[in-house]
Amino acid sequence: MRYIQRHSAFARGLHWIHTIACLSLFATGLILFIPSVAAAVGTATVQGARMVHRVMAVIFIVAPIASMIISPKGFVHLWKSLFFKWDADDKEFMKKFFPYLLFGAKQHMPPQKINKSGQGAVDGVLIFASVFIALTGVVLWWPEFFGGPTSGLFQWSLALHSGLMILIGIIMLAHIYLGAGIFQPYKGSGKLMFGNGRVTESDALYHWGHWAKDELKKGDNVIVE
Amino acid sequence: MAETAIMYDSSKCTACKGCQVACKQWNQLPSPLSSELFEYTESFQSPRDLSSNTWLIINFSEEDKEIGIDWNFMRNSCFHCTDAACEMACPVGAISHKDNGAVVIDQDKCIGCRYCVASCPFDVPRWDEAKNKTFKCWQCFDRTSAGREPACVSTCPTDALQFGDRAEMLGLARERVSELKAAGFNKAEIYGENELGGLHTIVVAHRGLEAHGLIRDPKIGLTEFWQFLKPLGAIGAGATVLGLGFSYFMARDYKRGEYSYDEATDTVSVKEVE
């Protein structure tokens, strides 16, 4: 049986760290977002959640920046894999994706590069939203440096931080559904980031046809067991 | 408990600051020791601003005239809005309305996030860094709930401050505005009747709202917008979960073929799986 090593241990480690940070930020953020939840858990828990939120925010910001410094090539590789010019297959994939997702995957999907066109588009939105939620979070944490809590910047940051949390939350729901392989045709995908980072030849050809063929031809990342 | 209100009549106020002292005394608020609150500004106003330990001040807007000065005083404290932005913004439900309309902060629940500070259109709530909590006037709810007047009202020597049933206070304010207009104060008007759903501090501004530093038609602004995000977020998340649930149901029996690739012939073959 042939496998392709799709994700390095470094990438998987970073994904683990960011998963923990994201989920913690989301859970602690929700406590502050829904007053009835805050009232139910009590003031001490809310204050604890705020502290956890801040610690996790530091991890959320520092981890990707550190990874860029530690592995600049990996960062460039990731960037190129997400932001590329769409060819006919990429456009067709996007056209067929929602019927595929919603109506039992009856569609035949066109082969894809290392990342699917839709994956690149959503990850682009996610990165953009993450940068802005981090920036607005910094304003909310230290308003003194940005004109104080009565400044327009603070008020906008508060509104944007909440709006971006909703956007990221909804994207994360879909990301978990597909990435963890809850969606039947994506079964087994969870191992890619949370397991050994390997994908079987069959899965690779099904999901990323162009990339799988290139990798199988090159053979550098192919493991036979 | 009936809706109550404080009525402040700027034309009767002599800015004796007795109300400021009474507020501090009753609520046991120490005077600030830092000099910045008393910095010389050529104004008789003192202190310069509200703080976590100063919940009420009389603002001085001294207007130079050809002869003398127009003293445009204004009571600067919480207006106890019906549509209170601070209450909307508080993420932990620490700010609430009492039955009589007073807006109070429950200090046991306050987490010092300063969202109320950011949202108040009148810049009233003040954060205490050492305590990490926010403070503001609570209309002496301990006194009013026992049938007494707020401390500031009880000490006013000129009856510039009155307290009672809100409708009654509005009646007095209307009467006073008529008197002032008859006396030549043509710009005299009432503040608080309809602003932000109706305030629980009614003001008779004898030289007009602007002269007394009052915001004409105050708005809640962004606070209302991001509160709107909460139901929107719930609908968005709910719709996503439903959509994904539907997707899961439709794809539950999906069987994927076994794919393999032959590099020599550059062909992908699919073996159907039972």
Features of this protein?
heterodimer; A: 225 residues; mainly alpha; Fumarate Reductase Cytochrome B subunit; three-stranded antiparallel sheet; 10 helices; B: 274 residues; alpha+beta; Alpha-Beta Plaits; 7 helices
On the 0-100 scale, what is the average pLDDT of chain B? 93
The biggest beta sheet of chain A is recorded as: 3 strands, antiparallel
Pattern of helices and strands of chain B: EHEEHEEHEEHHEHEEHEE
- Tell me, briefly, the overall form of chain A: elongated
Number of domains of chain B: 2
Judging by the overall fold, what is the CATH architecture of chain A? Answer: Up-down Bundle
Tally of individual helices of chain A: 10
Biggest interface, residues from each chain? A-B, 48 and 49 residues
Order of helices and strands of chain A: EHHHHHHHHEHHE
Strand order of the largest sheet of chain A: 2-1-3
- Would you report the number of β strands of chain B? 12
Q: What is the count of helical runs of chain B?
A: 7
- Per CATH, the architecture of the largest domain in chain B is 2-Layer Sandwich
Helix content of chain A: over 70%
Mean pLDDT score of chain A? 92
pLDDT < 50 stretches of chain B: none
Which structural class do the helices and strands of chain A define? mainly alpha
Which quaternary structure do these chains form?
Answer: heterodimer
Gyration radius over CA of chain B: 28 Å
Structure explained in plain terms:
The complex is a heterodimer of chains A (225) and B (274). Chain A has helices at residues 9-33, 35-41, 43-70, 72-82, 88-102, 117-141, 152-179, 190-194, 201-207, 209-218, and strands at residues 2-5, 198-200, 222-224. Chain A is 72% helix and 4% strand. Chain A has one domain: Fumarate Reductase Cytochrome B subunit (Up-down Bundle). Chain A is built from ten helices and three strands, in the order E-H-H-H-H-H-H-H-H-E-H-H-E. In chain A, strands 2-1-3 form a three-stranded antiparallel β-sheet. Chain B is built from seven helices and twelve strands. Chain B has a four-stranded mixed β-sheet with strand order 8-1-10-9. In chain B, strands 2-3 form a two-stranded antiparallel ribbon. A two-stranded antiparallel sheet of chain B has the order 4-5. Chain B has two domains: 4-219, Alpha-Beta Plaits (2-Layer Sandwich), CATH 3.30.70; 224-271, no CATH class.
